[in-house]
Specification:
The chain is mainly alpha-helical. It is built from 11 helices and 4 strands; from the N terminus they run αββααααααααβααβ. The chain has 2 domains: 46-231, Lysozyme, CATH 1.10.530.50; 238-289.
């Protein structure tokens, strides 16, 4: 009996060893795949030179920070489900790489945010820049809050920046540091590549934050995010109503449309007052939800 028990014990030990070896091999293979994935990182098709020590550390910092901002990152992923389908075809229409939707993620977390400097909306335009790109900004209408129009304006800016710098990475950096700011540092340092430039702390981190969020949002399970499909925020079906006159009371007008003022503002945050003044006869398109609101 002792011999049989000894053999059984040896077999058990051997079996455990095989299981541990296989588990180790699987973990090793997974880590290898993750390493390869990160090693091949790019932004808009432009390779991220992670072979440079400081570039690797700067990217790792932003990846580590953002993958551990659990509630914030999860909410961004939920919002992206209803925001990205609006933004993606506009980026495609203008020939701007799809990766730039992650720029909007780090600008505003896909909310109509207001910065201390006065930038507003998903794409965080300042008033002067918004007007430069033909967005209306006044007490009654602020198109920085209009997702389609602000995305179009961002595309126009990025195309101009790409033409100036010849690089989508530098175009992205200039969205934060300004075209003039980036050009000044290029001239001072005699370098033209984003990864070779010493910029302000915010602009130095900026592109890495975009790339980190791209990596996390494209591979959520790898970073511990497993959000069921039914928990993602849904797009609401709407009808479009065109208006070319003033509306004295938007609350009354909303009720006439079968909704209320709150719902009107949720779907049209660019309407900034209880009244819509329209002395020029401009045509505004107002979205009215038709179900699921």
């Amino acid at each position: 009996m002792k011999g049989i028990k000894k053999v059984a014990l040896l077999l058990t030990i051997a079996l455990v060893g095989v299981v541990l070896i296989n588990a180790s091999a699987i973990v090793g293979e997974t880590k290898k795949e993750e390493t390869n994935s990160i090693a091949n990182l790019n932004f808009c098709g432009e390779k991220v030179p992670l072979n440079l020590a400081d570039v690797h550390e700067r990217f790792d910092k932003e990846l580590t920070i953002n993958k551990n901002l659990h509630s914030s990152t999860e909410l961004v992923m939920k919002r992206a489900n209803k925001m990205f389908p609006v933004m993606e075809p506009i980026l495609k229409k203008y020939g701007v790489p799809d990766d730039f939707k992650y720029l909007a993620v780090i600008e505003s977390k896909l909310e109509n945010a207001v910065s201390s400097a006065g930038a507003r909306g998903i794409w965080q335009f300042m008033p002067a820049t918004a007007k430069e790109y033909n967005m209306e900004v006044n007490d009654f209408v602020d198109e920085r809050y209009h997702l389609e129009k602000s995305t179009e304006a961002a595309c126009k800016y990025l195309l101009a920046a790409k033409q100036k710098f010849g690089s989508w990475t530098l175009a992205a950096a200039s969205y934060n540091g300004g075209m003039g700011g980036v050009t000044k540092q290029q001239d001072r340092q005699k370098m033209s590549n984003y990864y070779d430039l010493l910029l302000t702390e915010e602009t130095s981190r900026y592109v890495f934050r975009i790339i980190a969020m791209k990596e996390i949002m494209q591979n959520p399970a790898k970073y511990g995010y497993d959000i069921p499909q039914n928990e993602l925020y849904k797009m609401i079906n709407t009808k479009k109503v065109e208006v070319n006159t003033s509306i004295e009371n938007l609350a009354d007008w909303a009720i006439e449309q079968g909704i209320n003022y709150k719902i009107l503002k949720v779907h049209n945050p660019w309407l900034r007052d209880i009244t819509l003044k329209n002395s020029t006869g401009k045509t505004y398109t107002i979205e009215i939800p038709i179900e699921g609101y």
